[in-house]
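Running co-folding for S-adenosyl-L-homocysteine.
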Amino acid sequence: MTAEFAAMLRDIEDELACTSREVGKTAFDPRVMAALAAVPRERFVPLSHRTLAFANGPLPIGHGQTISQPYIVALMTDLLAPRADSVVLEIGTGSGYQAAVLAEIVRQVYSVEVVAALAEAARERLAALGYANVTVRHADGHDGWPEHAPYDGIVVTAATPDVPPALVAQLRTGGRLVVPVGFPGDIQQLRLIEKREDGSVASRDLLPVAFVPLTRALR
Ligand code: SAH
């Protein structure tokens, strides 16, 4: 591991120390940090930005989209409480980085991307890196991916003012949904939603975040 990569992992832990009160934890699950350490982040950013691949910030990936900040990827992964036998749905494949981090931990990742070119590029990148347990689909994530439901965890990596009901419906009892809720262009709240045994949901807003919008138009 390069010094820059090691520094990225330290930056993630430092930022957690600064936000531990909001997010309600002082350390990430060691499996989450091991996954972050295992995924070659530089392979998910455009060549023009490779020197910044290990900076703790978001980066452009084309088509007006971004790869999320490493700390946010770690946080969202940890909030899902992923296990080795989990099946997880991601809405917003983007570069495929978040999907790869999840794929290091869980049995299967299904990921939906609304921009065809990004879906195709992520599919090729993940295959080239040997992630056989990620399946990418070009579709509107508002509908989730009903064929493989229910999911142990669902992560939405684009901002929406209203949590799509299909996603809550496709969550297993005891499952967790992590989604930035708020208007695009504004600050959103990272929301953790848990589905209880009786089918009701518990919801908690954890941290202000800034994501690109969850759009409806297939591109
Ligand atoms: N998880 C990504 C970051 C994605 S940025 C990564 O690790 O790189 C958000 C992504 O959500 C963008 O690629 C955007 O095109 C996609 N997106 C926006 N609206 C969507 C929708 N309705 N369904 C699926 N993907 C969507």
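Result summary
The CA atoms of residues 37 and 188 lie 28 Å apart.
The first helix runs from residue 3 to 23.
Job closed.
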